[in-house]
Amino acid sequence: MRHIAKLAVVALLLTTAACTSDDGGGSSGGGSGNTPGVTDTEILIGTHMPLTGPAAAGYSKIAPASKAYFDYVNANGGVHGRKINYKVMDDTYNPATTQQVVRELVLQDKVFAIFNGLGTPTHTGVLDFLKTNRVPDLFVSSGSRSWDQPQKYPGTFGFNPDYTVEGKILGTYVKTTWAGKKTCFLGQDDDFGRDSLIGFEKGLGAPVAAKQTYVTSNPNVGPQIGAFKAAGCEVVMLGTIPGFTALSLGTAAKIGYKPQFVVSNVGADPTTLTRTLGAAAPALLEGVVADNYLPLNTDDGNPWIQLFKKVNAEHNGNAEFDNLIVYGMSGAYLLVQALQAAGKDLTREGIIEAVQKNGFTGGPGLAPLRYSKDDHSGYGGMRLTKITGGKAAYFGPTYETDEKDGPVQEYAQQPATPPANGIPAAS
Question: Residue 30 carries which DSSP code?
């Protein structure tokens, strides 16, 4: 019996040691030494991205752009002496696959954090798993309001302006510019489409005249676009990913339907759309109104674009430079800011605290970041764009608003310029 009791004590001690050595929040007082994914020389970050599948058009360029910026930082000494190792897993924009690859990243690879996981339907399915395993879920690549639930998901933070904020800004513009025009809406059949519609109708101050949805597994929007034509819709708002933006524009052209299209930022990159639409692109894209909150890829005089083009040439094989590369590098810059702010003794709890302090005002964004203990929603505004001659250009001021009933108002603060070496300083 004494022998059995001794074995039980040993087993208990081993179990306690194992739990302590894999502390999910770094809260045991051991600092980085027992934080998953962190060694003296490396920080392992993971993500899920649609490298193939229905959302791969354009979106497959985001993770390589982020990695290129991390490689640039690594080549210049890393973050507090550590290099960022970025592991990207293809989830094909399939929620079931997302759950599989995120479990692998967390349980097998033991990443420090998930960064910029892309997609509303995909990422929604891993929120509870990441919370249970106390894995920081940083700067989700989607504007769903689901990421802004700090009481329920304290480790999850958005990046994009949420779709309701965006919808309000676009709806307000439509109401002001095309008053009295019959306005309709096509959106993805998930929180992306639903949140966009909520915001758009808030901005319009009235329900849309007609609304349709699509699912990504069915690449045919003929019935939806046909219904808009039959209803006499004069302005059509698209809450669509790039492939379905292109489908919508192409389908409308085939049936001789020419409304004013207003497109969510996530589906409006001209380079991506041109690649999909081919020779018909210039005519189909002319006059499309959208929005953005980051420097535009065609603005060669912008110092952020100059920095990102340099990084793209040195570390990304000089890939065709578009707004999705700007997006990927902008998110990576923000992660480096957060890692710098979290300090050398890097823990999971420490980086969450660093983000909530909301000190990230020196990045490329045109609108303010809204991070705090009570707000995990990311950027809080947009600026309108119009495509002319195949290129998007900004017009008017930057606007900010909330996801509720607050006003859409101008945001006057000018964007920051990057540091001389292109790397945020440690705070």
Answer: -
The total number of structural domains that make up the chain:
2
The continuous run of DSSP H or E covering 387 comes out as: strand 381-388
Range of the domain at 215: 163-292
* CA–CA gap between residue 202 and residue 207 (Å, rounded): 8
40 lies in the same domain as 158: yes
C-alpha distance across the termini of the chain, in Å: 57
The pTM is what?
Answer: 0.92
Same domain, 132 and 83: yes
Burial of 176 (0-12, 13-18, 19+ CB in 10 A): exposed
In a domain, 390, yes or no: no
Give the pair of three-digit tokens for residue 258.
């020419």
Q: Is residue 170 located within the same domain as residue 185?
A: yes
What gap in Å lies between CA 64 and CA 331, rounded to an integer? 12
Domain's final residue, options 273, 292, 311: 292
Q: What is the DSSP letter of 108?
A: I
Distance CA 3, CA 7 (A): 6
Report the CATH number that the domain containing residue 351 is assigned in CATH: 3.40.50.2300
Tokens of 160: 């994009």
Residue 63's alpha-carbon distances to 138, 176, 240, 268, 415, in angstroms, are 14, 37, 20, 18, 24
398, β-bridge pairs: 383
| Average pLDDT for runs of 10 along the chain of length 427 | 39 36 37 84 98 96 98 98 98 98 98 98 98 98 97 98 98 97 98 98 98 97 98 98 98 98 98 96 98 98 98 98 98 98 97 92 95 96 97 98 96 94 91
Q: Which residues lie below 8 Å from residue 66, measured CB to CB, with a gap of 6+?
A: 47, 86, 115, 116, 328, 329, 331, 332, 335
